[in-house]
Amino acid sequence: MSILTRTGCAIIMTIRTCPSRTAILFSAAMLAGAWSFEVFGGYPPCDLCWTQRYAHMGIIALALFLIILHQMTTIPARILDFLLVPALFTTAGIGAYHAGVEYKWWQGPTDCTAQSIGGSFDPDQFMQALQNAPIVSCDEVVWELFGISMAGYNFLLTLGMGLLILFALTRKDNGKEHA
């Protein structure tokens, strides 16, 4: 068995036995990637980017809650972990909506701008930052790879993770309880 096959099997087993932990790791990685694009790539997020980030933060919070609940209830962990699936699909839907706005498939929000200000709050610094803030529009693709934007990748990866967890939770031979 090749190392790739063994690694793939290990990943699938982790998803099957610990979907809540997998969801935490997945959403944390998605947030780390978005943050890296912002900090190291110089791509400030728009309002829809923030909405996608908040959705991933929500998945992390839900999964942590489920892990705690696994220890406190007699409801099978598999049943509780099904709550992750609609959360992941909703997050994927937000990514799809944003990608559609970027590619002009439909109209997006008209007030779609955002800019972060680092450090402590200073009114003069705040006014200067507002005056010099670049306008970040939700309907422009600022980065893409193979014709797919960051929002498009968020959609594809999050949908894929949702499907993997759904598949793992519905497999009949998944008899091992998880936490």
Overall average residue pLDDT: 80
- Sheet with the most strands? 2 strands, antiparallel
Order of helices and strands: HHHHHHEEH
Percent of residues in beta strands?
Answer: under 5%
Q: What characteristic shape results from the CA principal axes?
A: globular
Q: Enumerate the strands of the largest sheet in spatial order, edge to edge or round the barrel.
A: 1-2
Number of helices: 7
The gyration radius over C-alpha positions equals: 19 Å
Structural class: mainly alpha
Distance between the termini: 29 Å
State the low-pLDDT regions, or none. none
* Proportion of residues in helical segments: 55-70%
Number-wise, the strands total 2
Topology overview:
Blueprint: H1 3-17, H2 19-39, H3 47-72, H4 77-81, H5 84-102, H6 123-132, E1 144-145, E2 148-149, H7 150-170
Antiparallel strand pairs: 1-2
Helix pairs in contact: 1-2, 1-7, 2-3, 2-7, 3-5, 5-7
Write structural notes for this entry.
65% of the residues lie in helices and 2% in strands. The protein has 179 residues and is mainly alpha-helical. A two-stranded antiparallel ribbon has the order 1-2. Strand 1 (144-145) and strand 2 form a beta hairpin. Helix 1 (3-17) packs across helix 7. The longest helix has 26 residues, at 47-72. It is globular. The mean pLDDT is 80.
Which tags fit this structure?
mainly alpha; two-stranded antiparallel ribbon
Brief write-up:
65% of the residues lie in helices and 2% in strands. It contains seven helices and two strands. It has a two-stranded antiparallel ribbon.
